[in-house]
Amino acid sequence: MRLEHEFPPVFNTEAKVLILGSFPSVQSREQQFYYGHPQNRFWPLLARICQEELPRTVTEKKALCLRHGLALWDVIKSCEIQGSVDSTIRNAAVNDLRIILDQCDIQQIFVNGATAYRLFEKYQKNSIHRDAVKLPSTSPANAAWGLERLWEQWKIIRVYITDSQ
């Protein structure tokens, strides 16, 4: 069955960093927002990067991103996928990243995980003429990477963010 990405990107014109995932997980699709699985380390990492408390609600998560110049979206607009397993993505259609890139001064694109990076390289890189930095996946399926090990890679984002203080 073909699924559509049903919620919009998070960004405003102040965004300096674009973080891309692959396609929303089952929990994210149910919540209609990014990184909805309770064991996903994305929000704890982002809170630490931004030196803020862990956001709990969708409203708090959006506000955290917007305060710090972060944009969120996914590479894939629609695809066939089994559950939340990225490796089962087939027949992908991609989001038009120019929607963000044309409105913002994005200084760096980061991609959350190897599958998202592979999809970005295959479908996006040549059309937008931009490179991306691959970061290890925050997914609970990436159990080999604990929170501290993820932090060592993800903290590079601090160089680009806007401090809210």
Polypeptide structure, described:
It is a single chain. The protein is an alpha/beta fold. The chain has a single domain (2-159), classed as Uracil-DNA glycosylase-like domain (Uracil-DNA Glycosylase, subunit E, 3-Layer(aba) Sandwich). The chain is built from 7 helices and 7 strands; from the N terminus they run E-E-H-H-H-E-E-E-H-E-H-H-E-H. It has helices at 26-31, 42-50, 58-67, 98-101, 114-123, 125-128, 147-154; strands at 2-4, 17-21, 70-74, 76-80, 90-94, 108-112, 133-135. A 4-stranded parallel β-sheet has the order 3-2-6-7. A 3-stranded antiparallel β-sheet has the order 1-4-5, with no helix packed on it. The termini are far apart.
CATH architectural name: 3-Layer(aba) Sandwich
**Uncertain residue ranges:** none
Rg for CA atoms: 15 Å
Number of structural units classed as domains:
1
The percentage of residues in β strands lies in 15-25%
Question: Based on helices, strands and strand pairing, what is the structural class?
Answer: alpha/beta
Shape: globular
CATH topology: Uracil-DNA Glycosylase, subunit E
